[in-house]
Amino acid sequence: MANHPATRQQALSALATEVHDCRFCPRLVEWREQRAADPPRRYQDESYWARPLSGFGDPDARVAIVGLAPAAHGGNRTGRIFTGDRSGDWLYAALHRTGFANQPTSTHRDDGLELDGVYVTAVVRCAPPANRPSPNERNRCLPYLERELALLGDCRTIVALGGFAWDGALRALKALGNEVPRPRPRFGHATEAEVGEWGVLGCYHPSQQNTFTGRLTEPMLDAVFSRARKLAG
Questions:
Q1: How confident is the model over 100-120, as pLDDT tens digits?
Q2: For the chain, which domains are there?
Q3: Which listed site, 1, 87, 115, 212, has its alpha carbon 20 to 30 Å from 13?
């Protein structure tokens, strides 16, 4: 069923509805709703999503991008992962430059952004305090990532944005029955690992901590997505 294009989109949509209704982690529920109730002045006139985020993109994607979690005033506000924050500015600009996105910006859910050949998701679906989910919160959320990857029937390449996403991707692939190599592959920028029938490609997270300091540059980010396209075939 997952490999049939018509039913794949239906299954992803049904999973998205399930994700949006999730309240499994009391600390994250409280935090995401508190941030929405007390936003910064620049967002005080906006209505926050303040719910968990599903992945989104091309259901026939050959590349999946996995991040850490939504930002408190980014995806938690807009209702779409990597949308409305500086990390998203970098991500979607790079996807546009490398032919995966029809436009270089993403500001809200209905802004016209379309992804081609790529699906964007995360390990944890609620904005966590200090961007640090607990191990238990990660484990409760991982089945959503596992199910998304299983439904993306044409996808066998993952770009993991940061070490947390790298670890989460390996855990999800193992849960899907793929053998993780020993010693366990370590995260690094442009590091590649074969996990069963999947290829996993590491990339520094496009956070301000990395982009402002020059640890991650636009050419470095573009090179990762160009490599991902090549790996995906």
A1: 999 999 999 999 999 999 999
A2: 5-232 (3.40.470.10)
A3: 87
